[in-house]
Specification:
CATH topology: Rossmann fold
Bound molecules: guanosine-5'-triphosphate, magnesium ion
Number of strands: 7
Number of helices: 6
Radius of gyration: 17 Å
CATH architecture: 3-Layer(aba) Sandwich
Structural class: alpha/beta
Strand order of the largest sheet: 1-3-4-2-5-6-7
Largest sheet: 7 strands, mixed
Strand content: 15-25%
Shape: globular
Number of domains: 1
Amino acid sequence: MSNHHANDYLKKIHQTEFLLSAPTFKLCPDDVGFEVAFAGRSNAGKSSAINTITQQKQLARSSKTPGRTQMINFFGVGSENSRIVDLPGYGYAAVPEAMKIKWQKELEEYLVSRKSLVGLVLMTDIRHPLKYFDEQMLHWAKDGGLPVHVLLTKADKLKHGAQKSALLATKQQLQSLELPFSIQLFSALKKQGLQELALVLGEWLQLPVAESSDNHTGA
Ligand SMILES: Nc1nc2c(ncn2[C@@H]2O[C@H](COP(=O)(O)OP(=O)(O)OP(=O)(O)O)[C@@H](O)[C@H]2O)c(=O)[nH]1
Ligand SMILES: [Mg+2]
């Protein structure tokens, strides 16, 4: 797999546009095409990752206040049939219990039954191990036959060696769950891991690549 494709995918991903915000999954776009969901605890860095990979400062609102993203936000990657979804963060303590339970039911239904959903990007702050609800998400993804790509976000908060250790520890944690997954380091601040993420999104969303000129010889 080449960086060549990663750059083609990135170019396409830069063309991402906001589609719509939905307060519930009942109001989400038609279940056609391909969709990748970005999920994680509140404040994990979901919106920042979307803004960074799309090279658009304000596409997904990011904020220092946890729980700010209450709506399910849909973005079209060059087309409304290739979508990125910014899911509301979970684990925000101030949300009433009844609302949490209602939301969790909706989330589970979405992950298990949404046909256009082709992958889950699960984000977790590199300084925090996967928590109970992250594992819950991973099990729902497994139930839905959904591949999972884990981003260890805010990697810039740790030195190189500590980044590697965190990567290894989370890999081991995921392996013990016996789920198919891939994992990478990511930093929105340092723009670290963009190509790796672009490759995953490009493949899952089946984004077009430019015609290869590799076969042309001479002249
Ligand atoms: N140092 C550092 N800070 C980051 C990075 N990414 C996000 N942050 C900060 O972490 C906080 C939360 O980022 P968001 O992108 O809003 O997180 P979110 O997951 O969308 O949060 P909710 O929408 O509330 O669930 C903000 O203060 C960001 O500036 C990163 O790569 N490095
Ligand atoms: Mg957000």
